[in-house]
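Q: I'm building a small set of examples for a reading group on sequence design. Run inverse folding on the following structure and report the sequence directly after it, with nothing in between.
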């Protein structure tokens, strides 16, 4: 657990600044699949030496890797698997244009293809964004200002921010969480905001910037013309909640958590978990097998 100073970026802002970057996500994905040496990532990803060196250094400084005989994932680094699995499933379902076809997924325990299902870790009930089963919002360190990363826009592997949407394996995810204002707008939408003036108030940004971000999310099919989340947008909820869960397991602001949610049906504090859609068992990193 990393302690964050009072009044500064909270766990959400720090995490978006670290993981709202396609190269970092791809490096972590390959590490979970066995990459541990510089040459492993160079062989598996179309990444330059300079970019790879910079990302590995940043992820190591953040405690996701340790140096030794290569780069070894720490517990913090390996714990990103649920975020990556949620992204993988969302991109596979909702984003048809990729440079290469995403692999399938088999759950080792039932030996069947599956999708991850977001559930409450306390009662194992499925949770979806539209069922209003979660109550809560910002906690002691939570605010819009503290929840956005310092960096403005993450450059993606294909070079533009949205432009070519088949630039990498996580193209639209990066468009959603790789820009500080897009990430904040997505967060506001999941908290029920759908009026332009309310988005502007939450983001505390210029009307031009807010309009540009809304156009981006509408062009991706995440927001509808009336600025409400579409089915595609609502389906991004597991990514958001797994990211929030990871953030608050590994970063703690002095004042307390950034977001606090209660699962209304069971009354427990909500902690995200993932179940197998086929057999219903809880998913574990070691039991998710990619298939060609």
């Amino acid at each position: 657990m990393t302690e964050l100073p009072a009044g500064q970026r909270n766990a959400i802002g720090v995490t978006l600044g670290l993981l709202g970057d396609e190269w970092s996500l791809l490096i972590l994905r390959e590490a979970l699949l066995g990459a541990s040496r510089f040459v492993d990532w160079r062989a598996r990803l179309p990444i330059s030496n300079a970019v790879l060196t910079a990302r590995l250094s940043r992820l190591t400084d953040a405690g996701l890797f340790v140096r030794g005989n290569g780069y070894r994932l720490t517990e913090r680094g390996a714990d990103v698997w649920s975020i990556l699995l949620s992204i993988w499933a969302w991109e596979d379902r909702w984003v048809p244009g990729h440079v290469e076809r995403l692999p399938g997924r088999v759950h080792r325990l039932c030996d069947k293809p599956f999708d991850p299902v977001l559930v409450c870790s306390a009662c194992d009930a499925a949770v979806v964004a539209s069922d209003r089963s979660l109550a809560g919002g910002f906690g002691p360190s939570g605010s819009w200002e503290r929840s956005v990363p310092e960096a403005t826009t993450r450059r993606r592997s294909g070079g533009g921010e949205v432009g070519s949407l088949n630039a990498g394996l996580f193209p639209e995810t990066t468009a959603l969480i790789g820009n500080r204002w897009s990430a904040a707008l997505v967060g506001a939408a999941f908290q029920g905001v759908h009026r332009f003036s309310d988005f502007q108030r939450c983001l505390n940004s210029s009307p031009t910037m807010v309009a540009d971000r809304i156009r981006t999310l509408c062009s991706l099919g995440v927001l509808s013309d009336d600025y409400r989340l579409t089915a595609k947008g609502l389906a991004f909820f597991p990514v958001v909640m797994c990211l929030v869960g990871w953030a608050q397991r590994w970063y703690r602001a002095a004042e307390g958590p950034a977001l606090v949610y209660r699962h209304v049906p069971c009354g427990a504090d909500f902690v995200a978990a993932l179940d197998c859609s086929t057999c219903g068992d809880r998913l574990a990193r070691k039991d998710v097998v990619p298939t060609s």
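Residues 152-167 have pLDDT under 50 and may be disordered.
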